[in-house]
Write a structure and sequence with these properties.
The protein is α/β, with parallel strands linked by helices. It contains five helices and ten strands; from the N terminus they run E-E-E-H-E-H-E-H-E-H-E-E-E-E-H. The strands form two sheets. Strands 1, 4, 5, 6, 7, 8, 9 and 10 form an eight-stranded mixed beta sheet that branches. The chain has a two-stranded antiparallel ribbon with strand order 2-3.
């Protein structure tokens, strides 16, 4: 299965260069997303545009297949990319600004798609009752939710409205959709905390192993 990374937006709210290349925890966001998709067994393709020329250069330098679309919008770029790639099978479509995405989450989403019968699946994140700066808020499984920026679509029907399953995932890793400098700082803080916790867990396991071998 292909994993398309949408990296052609203007990033007007971000206002600090090309958003896919913004460093989050010392690594470009697009690199973190690409690794999550690749580690889940997907073939990664980046969808860029004239708005993101340095992202295209980065892809060439890192041997990532990149197609350049017109940069007219998320849907328009997907339709154009599908035509350029000759897609006729399901594809995972992910925004480049989800630096906390992991291969575990990608695998869970792909499994959910394969376990249902509709041509498309969209991922949603619950937001509770607090005010949210999001272009789309809807009710999913009885909870207020926003799109996570991840969809699985039928590549052969990209220019059609596809009937979809809505998958609600209450996972903190999906809450960091970076659209502003403040959101980037929040994502970096989350990653630092998660990596610190992971390091502590590894140390605890090492100590347990050392005790058991004495």
């Amino acid at each position: 299965m292909l994993g398309l990374i949408l990296a052609g937006g203007q990033g007007t709210r971000f206002g600090a260069g090309e958003k896919p290349l913004a460093l989050c925890g010392g690594r470009p966001m697009i690199e973190r997303v690409a690794d999550a998709l690749a580690d889940a067994g997907l073939e990664v393709v980046v969808v860029a545009s004239p708005c993101t020329p340095f992202t295209q250069n980065w892809c060439r330098a890192h041997d990532l297949l990149c197609v350049c679309t017109g940069g007219k919008g998320y849907v328009e770029d997907l339709v154009e990319a599908a035509a350029l790639l000759g897609l006729d099978e399901p594809v995972v479509c992910v925004s480049a600004d989800l630096p906390c995405l992991t291969s575990e989450l990608v695998g869970e989403i792909v499994a959910a798609y394969e376990g249902q019968g509709l041509p498309a699946l969209s991922v949603w994140v619950p937001v509770g009752d607090s005010p949210v700066d999001a272009p789309c808020i809807d009710e999913v499984d009885g909870r207020r939710a926003v799109p996570a920026g991840i969809n699985v679509l039928d590549g052969g029907r990209m220019n059609e409205v596809q009937e979809e399953t809505r998958l609600l995932l209450d996972d903190p890793r999906l809450r960091h959709n970076v659209n502003t400098p403040d959101a980037l700082k929040a994502a970096e803080a989350f990653l630092a905390s998660a990596e610190s916790t992971q390091a502590m867990d590894c140390n605890h396991r090492k100590k347990d192993i050392d005790r058991s071998t004495r």
